[in-house]
Structures are given as structure tokens and as C-alpha cells.
Amino acid sequence: LSGAENYLFDGYAHLSSGLACGLAGLAAGMAIGIVGDAGVRANAQQPKLFVGMILILIFAEALALYGLIVGIILSSRAGQSRAD
User: Where in the sequence is the domain holding 74, given as residue range(s)?
Assistant: First the structure.
């Protein structure tokens, strides 16, 4: 790898892509863990809370998918910084 082929924009695009995907996955994992723990405990006392818990878990998983989509978009823009 030579310095002439590596552009600063490409590096920051890949860094931000990884951070967006990783932090969104971390937030989704924390949300799923907290909601899952509270949901299992509450489900033992009131079984009608199961549907609400599943909906909240689905929305928490959507956070990770949004982060993945943003990461893919940012990563795909990495090669567009140079006018070949």
C-alpha cells in the first residue's frame, strides 16, 4: 500500500461505517438484554405482557439493522472521493 492510493476520506468513511454498525449493534444488544430480562420476569407474573415484549424486542432489533444499513451506505461511498 502506497500513500498515494490511500485517501483520507476513504479512511474516515470506513471508520465511521464500522462505528455506526458497531455502536448500533451495541445499543440494540443492550436494549434486547434489558427488555428480555424484564420481559421474562414480568411474563411469569402476567402472561399478557408477552406480545408487548416481543414488539419492543423487534423495534430494538431494528436499531441494529438501521446501523448496518448506514454502515453499508457509508462504506459504499468510500471509493467515490477520487476523480479517476
Answer: 28-79
Question: Is position 14 within any domain?
Answer: no
Domain assignment of residue 38, yes or no: yes
Average pLDDT per consecutive 10 residues, the chain (84 residues; last block may be shorter)? 71 94 96 95 92 94 96 88 60
Count of domains forming the chain = 1
- Report d(CA 1, CA 9) in Å as an integer: 16
DSSP 5-56: T--HHHHHHHHHHHHHHHHHHHHHHHHHHHHHHHHHHHHHH-GGGHHHHHHH
